[in-house]
């Protein structure tokens, strides 16, 4: 087990309940996730989100790692049971990752899972996410999952990333984003080792 495994339950939910579930985890590279979160806290988007402070307590990579390790230590989750999806993998190969997810969860896969968009679906989604207005418009307005045009997201050098953030959010914003990205990357990389992979064809 990793050295940072903890013996006490890091969740508010008792282990007697946690142990009954098959968990699904979704992760996103901090270089995109953190900058996206920061964007929600500054003008003009913060007028929609109502979020005017960049709260690092909202991020959760370390908490997810601790929970996963705790479940391992207490035999509530084995490596071959972990159902963890990396957002980059999902965007590169939606059908492959959703199918792998279904196989892991013992669910039947259908191509219909990759598309939606009826008026009823959209109305339900907008109602469910009304509390988070400003965060999820792209997802709410979408009608399906399609592979992005250029698979394999390219992440530049640290200085290239810093410059991109400086041009969007200024020196202070870039510094805040960089600090959090650097602080969370090790936890992200640890979690990524469990990410679902598409079976070779």
Which consecutive residue ranges, at least 5 long each, have pLDDT under 50?
none
Question: What's the alpha carbon Rg, rounded to whole Å?
Answer: 18 Å
Task: Supply the helix-strand structural class.
Answer: mainly alpha
Number of helices: 9
SSE succession: HEHHHEHHHHH
Helix percent band:
40-55%
The protein's oligomeric status is single chain
Tags for this model:
201 residues, mainly alpha, two-stranded parallel sheet, 9 helices, 2 strands
Tell me what the structure shows.
- The protein is mostly helical and 201 residues long.
- The protein is built from 9 helices and 2 strands, in the order αβαααβααααα.
- The protein has helices spanning 15-18, 30-39, 46-49, 61-73, 87-92, 94-105, 119-128, 137-141, 158-192; strands at 24-27, 83-86.
- It has a two-stranded parallel ribbon with strand order 1-2.
- Helix 2 (30-39) crosses helix 9 and helix 4 packs parallel to helix 9 (158-192).
- The protein starts with 14 loop residues before the first helix and ends in a 9-residue tail after the last helix.
- The mean pLDDT is 89.
